[in-house]
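[recover] target loaded
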């Protein structure tokens, strides 16, 4: 989790994206869940613009697009500390239920 949170994508901010809050898995128990760090946003810009600015930032930080972007999702990948990490940009709000104004989510994880 620390390596994910140390990546610039875990802390960068963008004009037009208002951070409502974050969620992350907790490293507990005999078999803890894989590290997942989610940032939940309210948008003050169109969804397509949010995808564009966040993707541009990710590419500048060494992330690569993993598959073709859709109107609702984009996936990027990068090696962090020797492990393949992913960033999911989406309009699906799962993982942000405690922030009802969420319309855009960025999730960083080790798939």
């Amino acid at each position: 989790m620390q390596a994910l949170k140390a990546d610039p994508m875990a802390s960068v901010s963008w004009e037009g994206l208002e951070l409502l809050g974050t969620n992350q898995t907790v490293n507990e128990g005999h078999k803890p869940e894989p590290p997942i760090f989610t940032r939940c946003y309210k948008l003050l810009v169109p969804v397509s613009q949010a995808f564009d600015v966040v993707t541009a930032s990710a590419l500048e930080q060494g992330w690569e697009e993993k598959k073709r972007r859709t109107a609702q999702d984009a996936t990027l990948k990068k090696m962090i500390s020797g492990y393949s990490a992913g960033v999911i940009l989406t309009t699906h709000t799962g993982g942000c239920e405690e922030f009802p104004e969420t319309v855009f989510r960025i999730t960083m994880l080790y798939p």
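[recover] notes: The chain has one domain: 2-109.
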